[in-house]
Amino acid sequence: MDFRSISLPVSNAIFFIFGSDSKDTPEIKKGSSIWSTPTCIAVGCTPDVDGETKITIGASRQVGLEEIPAFDGELETPSRMVGVEVVPRKRVLEQPVPGSRTRVRIWVNHPIEPDNIVIGLN
Amino acid sequence: MRRAIRRRHAGPAFKRAGSCPARSSRCGMRRRPTPATHLLPDSAKRRAGASRGSGSPSPHFSGAPTLFVWSLKRRADRDPLKAPPMTIYKFTRVTMPPTLEKRLEVLEAFRTLVSQDDEHVRQRRAEIAALRREAEDIRRCVDAFRRQLPGLRAEILKDLKAQKYSPDQPRVPAGTAHGGEWTNGGSEPAGTELPTPEHPKNESPWRVVANNDPRVLSDAPDATWAPGARSAQYRARGGGWSGGRPVMVNGQLLEPTPGQAARLVIAESNWREAIARAKEVDPSWHPTPGFEETVEGLISNLEAETKEAETHRSNLACYGIGPGPFAGESIAARGPERSFTAVEREQINRIGSETGCHSCGTKEPGTRRDNFVPDHQLPSALNPFGGAQRLYPQCLLCSRRQGGWITGHGGGR
Fold first, then answer.
1. Do B400 and A113 touch (CB under 8 A)?
2. Inter-chain touch B411–A113, beta carbons under 8 Å
3. What pTM, to 2 d.p., does this model score?
């Protein structure tokens, strides 16, 4: 599994990780920067007006960090593809995965407003 | 005995008046009863009794003859041959059937007639109550129209100004076919188009400009309109309706009362406006369909759907879709781009510090650099035709909520 990376200004300071064409986005609540449903993970980041956000996605063994991830959970991936989308549903990154369920771990460099986010897949 | 009583009571009066008893009798004294002494107040009755002196309880000659004879004398002095006017009372006897059975029949017939009268009265009362209710409905509708009038007038004036309306523009003189209409100085009104092969002169010459303004709500089938033509088609689900015609409700043509017709016009107008406003920000939204069998049911459903649309729009405003409940000052957006000048950022931060996030009202931006997020309204994802947008300050959480909502609803249109 290869890894991919992109830096871009993210509108609405949030992007989404989908494993299918689901529209089931999680409810955004105060006190966190990552929210999830079985089919979608929403990750808060730096607002576009304050700068770009670097997003890296790949296998955990390649991109994973030593630190404890900010998020560790499973995502339904019936399409065998994990995609990163920004508002309005614009896919900016894709990574193929082998199974219909994928373990996702996310590392961030700031608890509320990160500008460097690493997504590790298993 | 009656004559004796009469003489005893009338005697002193006759003496005072110097009149003849026989004459007074001839002039109707016996036939004329006391002039309503039972209707006199107590004081007057007492005076009348005192004038008699004897305090006789006789109800028929209670002192009045004295006055009457006095006036009779005066009349007799003026015209001795002319008798004073008198009132002749006719006493009628109710003829009753002789047997009990017949009387019973008569009573039953009488009761039947009375009950019929009662039923008629009840019906009339019900009709009057219905008319009163309708009048009250019409009054409410007129009040509603009156309340909406200033807003409508302002909108129309705004549109006219946008179309470079000038009150000094000349009009076609009265008395001509197009009298009173705007003109450029010629004989034809300003909006009249010359006949074309596609639209010969014998067709309706009146055309309205094709309207792409989403604020203008018209369900006319196309851009043409002719005076008297059927317009204001009722929503497709319910059938067609224009004022004064039967309403298609659930496949049936129903005739609304005048009050219902007025309320239906109001309800439909509000319904169209609310649905359009809700769909403007959420094109995929539809109101919960209702079921109606009567005109009243139709009006109720329209009102319920109007309320649902307004609630939906209000809920969306809390997600940053549309200016929120705390929206105050705003600045014009140069476009949908997310590149903002330092001045724009400064203005947004100033507005945010004064009125807070337009969605939730907080004055804490929640960002690391304490900058409010400039938020396009309508959101660019929901503004595919590039309509004018305004920038409002938004906090980080509300900005993310807005992004979540847009993504969850397909990313806009």
1. no
2. no
3. 0.52
